[in-house]
Amino acid sequence: VKVNVRFFALYRERAGINEMYLELIEGSTVSAALDKIRECFPTLAPPMSHIVTAVNTAYVEDDRFLCDGDELVLIPPVSGGGD
Amino acid sequence: LIELAYGPLVPDQVTAKVRLDRNGAVVTFLGTTRKISDGRQVLYLEYEAYPEMAVNKLEEIRLEVKERWGTEDVAIAHRLGRLEIEEISLVVAVASPHRKEAFLACQYIVDRIKEMVPIWKKEVFQGGGYHWVACEAH
User: Cys-Cys with B120: which of A9, A32, B2, B113 at CB 3.0–4.6 Å?
Assistant: First the structure.
Protein backbone atom coordinates (compact mmCIF):
# COMPACT_ATOMS: atom_id res chain seq x y z
CA VAL A 1 0.00 0.00 0.00
CA LYS A 2 1.11 3.52 -0.75
CA VAL A 3 0.28 6.24 1.74
CA ASN A 4 0.95 9.95 1.81
CA VAL A 5 2.53 11.13 5.05
CA ARG A 6 2.31 14.77 6.11
CA PHE A 7 4.24 16.57 8.82
CA PHE A 8 3.25 19.71 10.69
CA ALA A 9 4.80 22.15 13.14
CA LEU A 10 7.47 20.51 15.33
CA TYR A 11 7.54 17.30 13.27
CA ARG A 12 7.75 19.25 10.00
CA GLU A 13 10.79 21.08 11.32
CA ARG A 14 12.45 17.96 12.66
CA ALA A 15 11.82 15.94 9.48
CA GLY A 16 12.82 18.87 7.30
CA ILE A 17 10.02 18.08 4.85
CA ASN A 18 6.26 18.68 4.57
CA GLU A 19 5.29 15.32 3.15
CA MET A 20 6.52 12.02 1.79
CA TYR A 21 5.20 8.91 0.09
CA LEU A 22 5.60 5.67 1.96
CA GLU A 23 5.29 2.19 0.49
CA LEU A 24 4.33 -0.56 2.90
CA ILE A 25 3.46 -4.22 2.56
CA GLU A 26 -0.20 -5.15 2.33
CA GLY A 27 -1.89 -5.25 5.74
CA SER A 28 0.42 -2.72 7.38
CA THR A 29 -0.76 -0.72 10.35
CA VAL A 30 -0.08 2.83 11.46
CA SER A 31 2.41 1.36 13.89
CA ALA A 32 4.43 -0.19 11.04
CA ALA A 33 4.37 3.09 9.18
CA LEU A 34 5.61 4.94 12.24
CA ASP A 35 8.52 2.50 12.60
CA LYS A 36 9.59 3.29 9.02
CA ILE A 37 9.16 7.00 9.51
CA ARG A 38 11.21 6.94 12.71
CA GLU A 39 13.94 5.08 10.80
CA CYS A 40 14.01 7.84 8.19
CA PHE A 41 14.03 10.59 10.81
CA PRO A 42 15.70 9.37 14.01
CA THR A 43 15.40 12.76 15.70
CA LEU A 44 11.66 13.09 15.07
CA ALA A 45 10.65 11.95 18.55
CA PRO A 46 12.30 10.21 21.52
CA PRO A 47 12.57 6.44 20.80
CA MET A 48 9.87 5.12 23.15
CA SER A 49 7.54 8.11 22.96
CA HIS A 50 4.06 7.80 21.54
CA ILE A 51 3.27 9.67 18.33
CA VAL A 52 -0.34 10.72 17.87
CA THR A 53 -1.62 10.19 14.34
CA ALA A 54 -4.58 10.92 12.13
CA VAL A 55 -5.66 9.10 8.98
CA ASN A 56 -7.79 10.98 6.49
CA THR A 57 -8.37 13.75 9.07
CA ALA A 58 -9.58 11.48 11.90
CA TYR A 59 -7.52 10.56 14.96
CA VAL A 60 -6.60 6.86 14.91
CA GLU A 61 -4.98 4.21 17.09
CA ASP A 62 -1.68 2.59 16.12
CA ASP A 63 -3.36 -0.68 15.14
CA ARG A 64 -5.39 0.98 12.37
CA PHE A 65 -4.76 -0.75 9.02
CA LEU A 66 -3.63 1.48 6.19
CA CYS A 67 -5.15 1.45 2.72
CA ASP A 68 -3.84 2.64 -0.61
CA GLY A 69 -4.11 6.41 -0.87
CA ASP A 70 -4.55 7.05 2.86
CA GLU A 71 -3.23 10.30 4.23
CA LEU A 72 -1.30 9.69 7.42
CA VAL A 73 -0.55 12.74 9.52
CA LEU A 74 1.71 12.91 12.54
CA ILE A 75 0.21 15.21 15.15
CA PRO A 76 2.91 16.92 17.20
CA PRO A 77 2.74 17.03 20.98
CA VAL A 78 1.89 20.08 23.02
CA SER A 79 5.33 21.49 23.42
CA GLY A 80 8.85 21.35 22.15
CA GLY A 81 11.37 23.94 21.16
CA GLY A 82 14.54 24.98 19.49
CA ASP A 83 17.17 27.66 19.72
CA LEU B 1 -18.99 30.47 9.68
CA ILE B 2 -15.86 28.40 10.18
CA GLU B 3 -12.75 29.98 8.84
CA LEU B 4 -8.97 29.73 8.88
CA ALA B 5 -7.54 33.06 7.82
CA TYR B 6 -4.09 34.33 6.98
CA GLY B 7 -5.10 37.97 7.36
CA PRO B 8 -6.22 39.96 10.41
CA LEU B 9 -9.47 38.84 12.05
CA VAL B 10 -12.28 41.37 12.36
CA PRO B 11 -14.49 40.43 15.34
CA ASP B 12 -17.48 42.46 14.10
CA GLN B 13 -17.53 40.48 10.88
CA VAL B 14 -17.58 37.25 12.86
CA THR B 15 -20.33 38.28 15.29
CA ALA B 16 -22.39 39.61 12.35
CA LYS B 17 -22.78 35.98 11.20
CA VAL B 18 -24.63 35.01 14.38
CA ARG B 19 -26.40 38.25 15.36
CA LEU B 20 -29.76 37.17 14.00
CA ASP B 21 -33.29 38.15 14.96
CA ARG B 22 -33.99 34.89 16.79
CA ASN B 23 -31.17 35.61 19.26
CA GLY B 24 -31.09 37.87 22.32
CA ALA B 25 -27.48 37.25 23.32
CA VAL B 26 -24.12 37.09 21.59
CA VAL B 27 -21.02 35.99 23.50
CA THR B 28 -17.74 36.66 21.72
CA PHE B 29 -14.36 35.34 22.79
CA LEU B 30 -11.13 36.83 21.47
CA GLY B 31 -7.84 35.00 21.85
CA THR B 32 -4.97 37.46 21.69
CA THR B 33 -1.22 37.09 21.46
CA ARG B 34 0.63 37.59 24.73
CA LYS B 35 3.93 39.34 25.17
CA ILE B 36 5.21 37.22 28.06
CA SER B 37 5.30 33.41 27.94
CA ASP B 38 6.89 31.41 30.76
CA GLY B 39 8.65 34.55 31.87
CA ARG B 40 10.21 35.14 28.46
CA GLN B 41 9.55 38.01 26.08
CA VAL B 42 7.86 36.90 22.91
CA LEU B 43 8.93 38.65 19.72
CA TYR B 44 6.25 37.24 17.40
CA LEU B 45 4.20 34.07 16.87
CA GLU B 46 3.54 31.68 14.03
CA TYR B 47 0.36 29.62 13.82
CA GLU B 48 0.25 26.48 11.74
CA ALA B 49 -2.69 24.18 11.06
CA TYR B 50 -3.44 20.87 9.43
CA PRO B 51 -6.17 22.78 7.66
CA GLU B 52 -8.47 20.02 6.35
CA MET B 53 -8.60 18.35 9.74
CA ALA B 54 -8.84 21.62 11.67
CA VAL B 55 -11.95 22.60 9.71
CA ASN B 56 -13.49 19.14 10.27
CA LYS B 57 -12.81 19.29 13.99
CA LEU B 58 -14.26 22.79 14.29
CA GLU B 59 -17.39 21.50 12.56
CA GLU B 60 -17.53 18.62 15.04
CA ILE B 61 -17.32 21.06 17.95
CA ARG B 62 -20.09 23.13 16.44
CA LEU B 63 -22.30 20.03 16.35
CA GLU B 64 -21.39 19.19 19.95
CA VAL B 65 -22.62 22.52 21.30
CA LYS B 66 -25.71 22.35 19.15
CA GLU B 67 -26.55 19.02 20.75
CA ARG B 68 -25.74 20.15 24.30
CA TRP B 69 -27.21 23.61 24.42
CA GLY B 70 -29.20 23.93 21.22
CA THR B 71 -27.01 26.80 20.10
CA GLU B 72 -27.42 26.94 16.34
CA ASP B 73 -25.53 30.12 15.64
CA VAL B 74 -21.80 29.67 16.06
CA ALA B 75 -18.99 31.37 14.20
CA ILE B 76 -15.32 30.50 14.60
CA ALA B 77 -12.40 32.22 12.90
CA HIS B 78 -8.80 31.22 13.52
CA ARG B 79 -5.79 33.14 12.28
CA LEU B 80 -2.76 31.38 10.81
CA GLY B 81 0.71 32.49 9.83
CA ARG B 82 2.80 35.15 11.52
CA LEU B 83 1.20 37.29 14.22
CA GLU B 84 2.66 40.16 16.15
CA ILE B 85 2.03 40.68 19.86
CA GLU B 86 -1.44 41.96 20.81
CA GLU B 87 -3.13 40.66 17.70
CA ILE B 88 -6.25 38.51 17.59
CA SER B 89 -5.59 34.83 16.93
CA LEU B 90 -9.07 33.45 17.54
CA VAL B 91 -12.63 34.73 17.43
CA VAL B 92 -15.50 32.57 18.70
CA ALA B 93 -19.00 34.04 18.58
CA VAL B 94 -22.03 32.21 19.90
CA ALA B 95 -25.56 33.55 19.81
CA SER B 96 -28.67 32.17 21.44
CA PRO B 97 -32.16 33.35 22.35
CA HIS B 98 -31.03 33.68 26.02
CA ARG B 99 -27.58 34.43 27.41
CA LYS B 100 -26.91 31.34 29.52
CA GLU B 101 -26.51 28.92 26.63
CA ALA B 102 -24.31 31.35 24.72
CA PHE B 103 -21.90 31.77 27.66
CA LEU B 104 -21.66 28.02 28.30
CA ALA B 105 -21.26 27.08 24.65
CA CYS B 106 -18.61 29.73 24.03
CA GLN B 107 -16.41 28.56 26.89
CA TYR B 108 -16.86 24.93 25.85
CA ILE B 109 -15.86 25.69 22.27
CA VAL B 110 -12.66 27.46 23.29
CA ASP B 111 -11.69 24.58 25.61
CA ARG B 112 -12.39 21.99 22.92
CA ILE B 113 -10.40 23.88 20.30
CA LYS B 114 -7.37 23.65 22.54
CA GLU B 115 -7.99 19.95 23.14
CA MET B 116 -8.59 18.57 19.70
CA VAL B 117 -8.06 20.97 16.82
CA PRO B 118 -4.70 20.46 15.07
CA ILE B 119 -3.38 23.98 15.22
CA TRP B 120 0.00 24.77 16.74
CA LYS B 121 1.70 27.99 17.65
CA LYS B 122 5.35 28.77 17.73
CA GLU B 123 6.46 31.46 20.13
CA VAL B 124 9.64 33.11 18.95
CA PHE B 125 11.51 34.74 21.83
CA GLN B 126 13.41 37.94 21.93
CA GLY B 127 17.13 37.20 21.80
CA GLY B 128 16.68 33.92 19.93
CA GLY B 129 15.03 30.57 20.55
CA TYR B 130 11.46 29.45 20.17
CA HIS B 131 9.08 26.76 21.26
CA TRP B 132 5.95 25.12 19.91
CA VAL B 133 2.85 25.11 22.04
CA ALA B 134 -0.61 23.75 21.42
CA CYS B 135 -3.32 26.10 20.57
CA GLU B 136 -5.03 28.17 21.98
CA ALA B 137 -5.58 31.32 23.98
CA HIS B 138 -5.71 30.57 27.70
Answer: A9
- Could you say which DSSP state residue A65 is in? B
Q: Which residues of B19-31 are buried (b: 16+ CB within 10 A; e: fewer)?
A: beeebeebbbbeb
Among B120, B112, B119, B115, CA closest to B94 = B112
B104 CB neighbour count, 10 Å cutoff: 17
Q: What is the pLDDT of residues B54-84, one digit of tens each?
A: 999 999 999 999 999 999 999 999 999 999 9
For chains A and B, CB pairs below 8 A equal 48
Q: What is the pTM of this model?
A: 0.90
Q: Which residue of B128, B132, B134 is in closest CB contact with A83? A: B128
**For residue B63, which phi and psi values (nearest 5 degrees)?**
-65, -35
For residues A14 and A43, is the Cβ–Cβ distance under 8 A? yes
One DSSP character per residue, B21-88 reads TT-SEEEEEEEE--SEETTEEEEEEEEEE-HHHHHHHHHHHHHHHHHHH---EEEEEEE-EEE-TT-E
